[in-house]
Amino acid sequence: MAMFQITTKHRKHVNGLLIEPGMTVQVVTQSMSNPVITNGGQPVVEAFMRMYGIDIKKAGCLNMADLEVVQIR
Q: Coil, helix or strand for 25?
C-alpha cells in the first residue's frame, strides 16, 4: 500500500467551483502508481469530494499541471 498527498497548485474558478492553491488531500492506494493518472483518478476525485465537497474532475483540475503529487509512504 502507498499513501499520496495531492495538493492543488493554482487558483481556478471553473464551472461554478472555486479551487484554491494549497487544498490538500491524502489518498491510500494498493499500487505505487500515481493516483491522479491511475483508474481515471477516481480515488483523488472521491477524496476532494469528501474533504471539500468539490468535483475536481468537473473543475478540469484532475491533471499533473494543476496537482502536485507526493508519495508519503
A: strand
